[in-house]
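Below is just one:
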Amino acid sequence: MSSYTLPALSPVDEVAVVGRAQSFTKRSIKKDSKAAALRLIVSMIDLTTLEGMDTEAKVKRLCRKGVTPLLDADLPSVAAICVYPPMVRVAKETLAGSGVKVASVATAFPSGQTFLNLRVEEVRQTVEAGADEIDMVINRGAFLSGDYSRVFDEIVAVKEACKEAHLKVILETGELGTYEQVRKASFLAMDAGADFIKTSTGKLASAATLPVTLVMLEAIREYFLATGRVVGMKPAGGIKTAKQAWHYLVMVKETLGDDWLHADRFRIGASSLLNDVLMQWRRKDTGRYQSGVYFSED
């Protein structure tokens, strides 16, 4: 086991974080910018299905929707389709030639509670099946008990198993307790080789929030300035409307700059967000909201 030590970190001013995060919700989209904003949101979505009742047919439908969200609209494809490991192969086949990535949760998602060798083997098999990206969960029990070296070593082992696939490290911020802990976990994950850091699994009531995401974005900025290494960000869970997504994009722009306003550096993990974006797109063209029943759920 390594003897990893967290770097000395400045404290988090919780009042300032909450206040600044709230300020992003007061921004509005100008009419002539709305189309560009909606297109950008679509291009950053990791369109996700992580249900026990997922079938190959459902995953195929989701892939086709991700490639062409609306048949008669000038919208880009989503960034990735995120599925459980057994569905990777069918997603890969369905998305062939589209440019849309296949992402998969691994490491005993969502709890992460099994033996490390099994978690690493799951990652290996998932990558062999065709996954371009792996979303792993950290060992929150080890982290909260202060066993940072164990968490670091586990991320390193998973990163090695990913080979050429990108690694998104899920902190499950709703279980970390404080912004200070979120900041610590962000730096630990980046030090261990994370290509992206991600807020949550989406399986808890407490998922992505603007203040938590701001703490993680500030950590990414500080890490980049210190090391020169680019790390991406992925809030996941609870982002259901285009308006909410826009608030996140404004926060990214004002914290990290335009270079992060691209799917290579920023993703939104979502299942229902895409439909709201499509409703907003129709409203932009017609002036009326179309009922949700006109858009497929998968």
